[in-house]
Design a protein that fits this description.
single chain, alpha/beta, Aspartate Aminotransferase, domain 1, Aspartate Aminotransferase, domain 2, 7-stranded mixed sheet, 4-stranded antiparallel sheet, binds pyridoxal-5'-phosphate, pyridine nucleotide biosynthesis, PyrdxlP-dep_Trfase, kynureninase activity, pyridoxal phosphate binding
Length: 404
């Protein structure tokens, strides 16, 4: 692939016009939108309105002018991106908190079964939260196994299979309908973490017959640092499943100020406390970008961007740990190298922002809404420079910050 080839793909790219909806600094090729999505241009004005007008001028009246039902309203906006009905999704809290609620709920709703099965090497918070959640349910335990052993690990004691759809390091993608069916066949419930999938690959929770799902909104959905996360519970489970963090915002009538908890109907019961309105305002503006986007076009472009960097890596002899088949991966590409940290730093110094995942992964996120084929081609050329000159050997690139 030559640079002219990349430019020709840009000329025919149906998503090219979305680049203009984002603010990105000059001189940066941003390959970390899978960790913190870029800033949509609509967000600063939305935050300004939420502060100056809604908070400053309307004051407490704003609760009845769009704040109190923001979690449901944004849930309905996320729903089409994950193949859910509008009343099967709610937005709030964090992915970590949502995982806790759903793991405990699943254990309590699958009596006689005690095990939560998950993948060894899953995203850390998923496993940490599962550890904490099983400790809250008498008899429950967490069992983690390698991906290849998962099918055998699902047995008559499995209450819940909890998987992250796209792996944060390798970009390996599980076949959602197949694994959901496997869990169900064994009598287990299925919980999907879609943090690295939503906005990256087409999703259809309904077609997969999924029970529960969670996901971040600050990655491919560009909701901003720490943006509230989404939680999905299939309609058929909503009446039976209970939120173990029984807060007043999940109460059927919070403003009755009753002592006893009575869960709200539908998804509202999954709320806990007062929603974070300022970050919700940012997320709502960011979701606006997605309204008319064709997910199939996102997937097609993601695959083309991947191929550009995969070819660059192959030419350098780099070990690509991401699947070559686009049907089996998300929207990032990862290379394994013993000096991956220093390489990441050398790239950042040259304006190519990717990230490092311990111990030896260089991870480059491919966000079709605001990256051009030419951007990614140039990133590949800069990677080639860094590798050929061994520029990463500069001792300055060995120093580690807290956040990698
Ligand atoms: C990013 C990510 C998270 C982050 O959870 P927070 O509660 O937002 O910190 C959780 N799970 C997966 C799979 C992720 O990729």
């Amino acid at each position: 692939m030559t640079r002219d080839d990349a430019r020709a793909l840009d000329a025919a790219d149906p998503l090219a016009r979305y680049r203009d909806l984002f603010d990105l600094p000059d001189g940066v090729i941003y390959l970390d939108g899978n960790s913190l999505g870029a800033l949509p241009k609509a967000v600063p004005a939305a935050i300004a309105d939420a502060t100056t007008r809604q908070w400053g001028d309307r004051l407490i009246r704003s609760w009845n002018e769009g704040w109190i039902d923001a979690p449901q309203r944004l849930g309905a906006q996320v729903a089409p991106l994950i193949g859910a009905a509008p009343d099967e999704v709610i937005v709030g809290d964090s992915t970590s908190t949502h995982l806790f609620k759903l793991i405990v709920a699943a254990l309590r709703n699958n009596p006689g079964r005690n095990t939560v099965v998950s993948e060894r090497g899953n995203f850390p918070t998923d496993l940490h939260i599962a550890e904490g959640a099983v400790a809250c349910v008498p008899g429950a335990r967490l069992r983690t196994v390698d991906r290849d052993d998962l099918a055998d690990a699902i047995d008559a004691d499995t209450a819940l299979l909890m998987l992250t759809h796209v792996h944060y390091k390798t970009a390996d993608r599980f076949d959602m309908p197949a694994w959901t069916a496997r869990a169900h066949a064994a009598g287990a419930l299925m919980l999907w973490d879609l943090s690295h999938s939503v906005g990256a690959v087409p999703l259809d929770l309904t077609a997969a017959n999924a029970d529960m799902a969670v996901g971040c909104t600050y990655k491919y959905l560009n909701g901003g640092p720490g943006a509230p996360a989404f939680l999905f519970v299939a309609d058929r489970h909503q009446a039976a499943f209970a939120n173990p963090i029984s807060g007043w915002m999940g109460h059927a009538a919070p403003f009755e100020f009753a002592d006893a908890y009575r869960p709200a109907d539908g998804m509202t019961r999954w709320l806990v406390g007062t929603p974070p309105i300022l970050s919700t305002a940012a997320l709502e503006a960011a979701l606006g970008v997605w309204v008319d986007i064709d997910q199939a076009q996102v997937a097609t472009k993601s695959a083309a961007l991947f191929d550009i960097l995969a070819a660059a890596g192959d030419a350098l002899g780099l070990a690509c740990v991401s699947p070559r088949d686009p049907a089996h991966r998300g929207s990032h590409i990862s290379f394994r190298h013993p000096h991956a940290y220093a390489i990441t730093q050398a790239l950042i110094a040259r304006g190519v922002i990717g990230d490092f995942r311990d111990p030896d992964i260089l991870r480059l996120g491919l966000t079709p809404l605001y990256l051009s084929h030419d951007d990614v081609w140039r990133a590949g050329a800069i990677l080639a420079d860094v590798m050929r000159d061994e520029a990463w050997r500069d001792p300055a690139y060995a120093e580690r910050s807290v956040v990698t």
